[in-house]
Design goal:
CATH topology: Herpes Virus-1
Radius of gyration: 12 Å
CATH class: Alpha Beta
Number of strands: 3
Helix content: 10-25%
Organism: Variovorax terrae
Shape: elongated
Order of helices and strands: EEHEH
Number of helices: 2
Protein name: DUF1272 domain-containing protein
Strand order of the largest sheet: 2-1-3
CATH architecture: 2-Layer Sandwich
InterPro entries: DUF1272 (IPR010696)
Distance between the termini: 30 Å
Strand content: 5-15%
Length: 82
């Protein structure tokens, strides 16, 4: 099950579980659409994988399967991998 992390790893913008502008890689590194598209050009700086739109969990499932509250913020590590 996806963690649905609560923020962008680059700019620390809040990304609630229902946010339409959240992107993830296959390891669930999480970025806002601005950082994913403009700063990272669709490539995860951690693993080099593709960043895609994060699916949204239906509201009725969030009570039983809540989103993560653990924030990951790497302001100096948000450059694409070579």
């Amino acid at each position: 099950m996806l963690q649905l992390r609560p923020n962008c790893e680059c700019c620390n913008r809040d990304l609630p579980p229902d946010a339409a502008g959240a992107c993830i890689c296959s390891f669930e590194c999480t970025f806002c659409s601005d950082c994913a598209g403009l700063r990272l050009q669709g490539i995860c700086p951690n693993c080099g994988g593709e960043l895609v739109a994060r699916p949204r969990r239906p509201a009725e499932k969030l009570a039983k399967y809540p989103a993560s509250t653990e924030r990951v913020h790497r302001p100096t590590g948000c450059e694409p991998t070579p």
